[in-house]
Every structure is written in C-alpha cells, then in structure tokens.
Amino acid sequence: MRLGRTSVKLISQKCMHAIVPAEPPYFVESLEPMEVTSGDAVCLKCQVAGTPEISVSWFKADGKVRSSPTCKLEFSKGVACLKLSKVTKQDIGEYSCKAENKIGTASTSCKLNVLEAKTPPTFPKKITSLQETVGQPVRFECRVAGSSPIEVSWMKDGAALKQGAGLSMSYNDNTATLQIDHGEMRHCGEYTCVATNSVGTASCRAKLTLQGWSKYISRTSNFHIQLARAFSEFPLHKDLKSQYFCTF
What we know:
Layout: H1 2-18, E1 26-29, E2 34-37, E3 42-49, E4 55-60, E5 63-64, E6 71-76, E7 79-84, E8 93-100, E9 105-115, E10 122-125, E11 130-133, E12 138-145, E13 151-156, E14 159-160, E15 167-172, E16 175-180, E17 189-197, E18 200-211, H2 213-219, H3 222-233, H4 238-245
C-alpha cells in the first residue's frame, strides 16, 4: 500500500514538471550603443533568458559575424559577448544579437561608432632663437599639430606670460604666435611655447637677444650715420640733441 502511494506521488510530481510551459528566448539586458576610439578594445554584451537550449548568433549590416583573430564570440550562462580587440573605422555599424530555441527567437541591436584616434600635440615647425634690436618688434611663430581642441600658452624663463602691455598671443589655423610690439632689454630671455590637449603636452623653446642702439645705427644707411655725426657736432642743448637723435 505504501508503495502504491509513493508511486502515485512520483507520477504526480512528474506531471507537474511536465506541464511547466517552455519559454522562447528574451533579453534580460539588451545591447547598448557604444562609442569608442580607433584602436580601442570593445565588448558588445547582452543577457538572454528562456528555455534551454538557446543558441546565439551575431550579425552586422553586411552579414553574419564570425569568430576571427580580432573578433571573439562568447556565450556562457546566458551572457552573450562580441569582443573586438582593436576597432577601426571599418567596424562602424549596427550589430544585432539573435537568440533562438525550439519555441521562438528574439533579437537586440545597437550601433557602434568609432572615433578617430586622438594624438598628442607636436611641433612640425618650432620657434627659433632671435637676435633683434631694441625698440623693434619681435615675433615668435611655430606650427602645432595634434587632435583638437589644443590650448597654447607661452612662458618666459619658466613664468607664464599674459597678454597685454605690448604683448599679444594668438593661435589660429595651427599657427601659434607671440608678438612683442617694442623689444626692450627686459624682454631678453628664454621663451617656451606649450601646447596641450586631452592626450598630451608638448613644448619648444628659443632665446631672445636684443642689441642696443649703437648696433641699430651701424645697420642704417650712410645718410643716417652722417646725420647722426652732424648732430654730434651741432651746438644744441644736450636734452634737445637727444630728442632729435632718437627720432631716427
């Protein structure tokens, strides 16, 4: 009698197990859009549930995605992954993951966008050391390359420079300039141009040397030299002579 009851109980449990409905696949976590930089590794991941056995396939706009040295397809414990070891512009597109079992199918999709790889700043053309005359304009100029946006700053003898008081700085069309309206002896020293973006910093240096007024006279025409000598012999008041002399 006990054996009969046990048999009925086992049969009842089997019947209850048999009537559990089978489920088609469905996604607990869907694919999400990704935006990465060229050269990065990326993993497109989703989680699927449903009645086993479930198989998973991946597709891109141009067809089915298959495993390769740079592309790995994984599916374990309901988690499906498409791993790209080093993305390029050719990997841009819409990806779909399709899950299926004997009952039905389900799919999820996302877009993958690949941005250009960012490069740190460089100087294709660096600033060069200058030797100018006191009172004359001074201009440092260099060319800057690298991923935008790039910020450019200038330093003199290690101290940051600010625009104003006869000093101007600009950065347009990849050209950085530092302009001094009238060179003075206090402007002599080492100048540094610093370029910075999100992935790095670069700098280049050059020296400025200024020559005095006597050097300027030696570079002028013979007319100016003779005129300067004439003033030195002309009986003018010292202050007045200096005033006229400085107008050359």
